[in-house]
Write a structure and sequence with these properties.
By secondary structure, this protein is α/β, with parallel strands linked by helices. About 50% of the residues lie in helices and about 10% in strands. Mean pLDDT is about 80; it is low at about 355-380.
Length: about 375
């Protein structure tokens, strides 16, 4: 029997919660359903999922990712790709999203015919009391306000774009548009797809067991996601370029402070920042295109271009400082700004240009079956 609903649960070290989660989902659901766990854990969560599947009355499927990409958002994306149902419900594995609210989301979808029904803490009847402490609640509220301000059109019907609990009509989402990173997959889905949105209130509960995965690192990824969603790849390139420019100026000023000739100081600063920028671009901006060509080839292309650009810029720096009264640091800052656009175009069109006919390889693996696809990952 084909399930009516695929319940997608990304997990990372949630072993103590699995049995209770499966049990409560079964008690809450009446229509045919399947549960798809997408697991990145380092504990025995996968074993607990397999054990729970043995006594479950509906299919429980497990996708184990040996090389996790994109964090929780990446796990949800893989779960959506593996789903066999028309409707998918996404929820956390810590029971802060109550399984008893799943039928409410689905009924709201049937009543409104929306593409997405968001479990919202910020509509009448909803609550975020399960967030640990006033500071986390304040950060969550502020994040929601900032996010809705940045995307007023796409999020006009969504009071809680930070929610991780939602139902989505699978065919309405173009997965190829998603660039998952960090925790906030709903935001990614709503901003990159044109969808009709409805909301249903729910109370964000306290964690059943285990520890919260929220961290300063995840906060950084959220800010990075906002920048990329709002401004595209250029924003990440700009941030790294700005960091490189500041580092360049700081290094140059420090070397001049110990009586290094300003031209020599500029060259040393350029070499160090070229290498640093390349590492950051590989990790954060063009990470999805690292399968295009070899690392050494990309580095050679990037270093050669930046080296030539540095020679031209340094020559211009010398000429301007020698022939005018403009200070060397100010001149360098202006020249770095001019070179930014050319550098972005070159890296996008040459160093990281996608090769025709090639797509990045999937990084997921499954627990059973001879063919590594999600449909062969069933553990029941």
């Amino acid at each position: 029997m084909m399930p009516d609903v695929s319940i997608i649960v990304p997990t990372y070290n949630e072993a103590p919660n699995i049995a209770e989660l499966v049990s409560r989902i079964e008690r809450a659901m009446h229509d045919p359903f399947e549960i798809i766990f997408v697991d990145d854990s380092t504990d025995d969560t996968a074993h607990q999922i397999e054990h729970a599947a043995l006594s479950a009355r509906m299919p429980v499927r497990l996708i184990r990712r040996t090389h996790p990409h994109g964090g929780l958002a990446g796990a949800v994306t893989e779960g959506l790709a593996a789903a066999t149902s028309k409707w998918c419900v996404v929820m956390d594995g810590d029971l802060q999203h109550p399984p008893e609210a799943i039928p409410v989301l689905l009924q709201r979808a049937a009543d409104t015919r929306a593409d997405v029904v968001v479990g919202s803490r910020h509509v009448p009847g909803g609550s975020s009391t399960g967030l640990s402490g006033p500071l986390r609640r304040a950060i969550s509220e502020a994040s929601t306000v900032v996010t809705r301000a940045m995307f007023p059109t796409r999020l006009r019907d969504c009071a809680d774009p930070m929610s991780g609990f939602f139902a989505v009509r699978r065919e309405a989402v173009d997965l190829s548009l998603l660039k998952p990173r960090g925790f906030k997959i709903l935001l990614e889905i709503l901003v990159r797809n044109r969808l009709t949105v409805a909301e249903a209130p729910f109370t964000f509960g306290e964690r059943h067991a285990g520890q919260s995965k929220a961290s300063l690192r995840e906060g950084f990824w959220f800010l990075w996601q906002l920048a990329l969603l709002r401004f595209g790849r250029l924003s990440g390139f700009a941030v790294i370029g700005a960091l490189g420019a500041v580092a360049n100026l700081v290094i140059m000023a420090a070397l001049q402070a110990i009586n290094v000739w300003y031209v020599s100081a500029a060259i040393i600063a350029a070499v160090l920042t070229i290498i640093g920028n390349f590492v950051l671009l590989e990790r954060f901006v063009f990470h999805d295109l690292r399968t295009e060509g070899r690392l050494l080839t990309r580095f050679a292309q990037s270093f050669t271009y930046n080296g030539l650009e540095t020679l031209v810029r340094t020559g211009a720096l010398w000429a301007i400082v020698a022939l005018t009264a403009v200070p060397s640091i100010l001149t360098q800052a202006v020249l770095l700004g001019i070179g930014f656009v050319l550098r972005f175009v070159y890296h996008s069109r040459v160093v990281y240009r996608p090769e025709p006919g090639l797509t990045p390889q999937r990084t997921s693996a499954v627990t059973s079956g001879s063919i590594p696809t999600a449909r062969n990952s069933s553990v029941r």
